[in-house]
Amino acid sequence: MALSPPADVTGLLHAWRAGDEAALGRLMPVVYDELRRVARARLRGQRPDHTLQTTALVHEAYLRLVQVRDRTWRNRTHFFALCAQAMRQILVNAALARRAAKRGGATPRVALEEELAAVPAPDVDILALDEALTQLAAQFPRAARVVELRYFTGLSVEDTGAALGVSPPTVARDWQFARLWLARALRHAEGESAAGDD
Fold first, then answer.
1. How many CB atoms lie within 10 A of CB 50?
2. pTM greater than the 0.90 cutoff
3. 3-class SS at 46?
4. Closest residue by Cα to residue 127 from 153, 93, 100
């Protein structure tokens, strides 16, 4: 994903953090198209009956972020990383709500991009992915952040490295490790789910 010029977003974030409320109004048009691309990618592969639309996901994530009192965003990459976290949580909450509404019905599934999957899988349970990412974060926090930035935000290896303060080769190694770790965890979760259905 090609992000907007750093100075635009970073400058607006810094101005807003300094108390310029008008900067927030100028920020949204600058980041809106990028947030829509991220949201579209996150919603691609969801079941046809899902209720979240791209625009709603963008707006809800944006609203969550602008309501944060501690506006310590360092730069545009950090802002988009927080947007990715917000979108992930919104999707997980929506999946939990749908499952609760169906009283144990099928858990919503989303496409796991081949780039992330280490083994072929047409889709993955979003709740299982969230749980696996939470487990990965507990053991390997940086690798989990790499997944959030690359998978949920679509940042390049270089932008991910800039956000985390590490080199691109380190990001590439973490990305490869996380893909394999998550694929194994998701296969394990799928096996437990199948065993529980018997």
1. 17
2. no
3. coil
4. 93
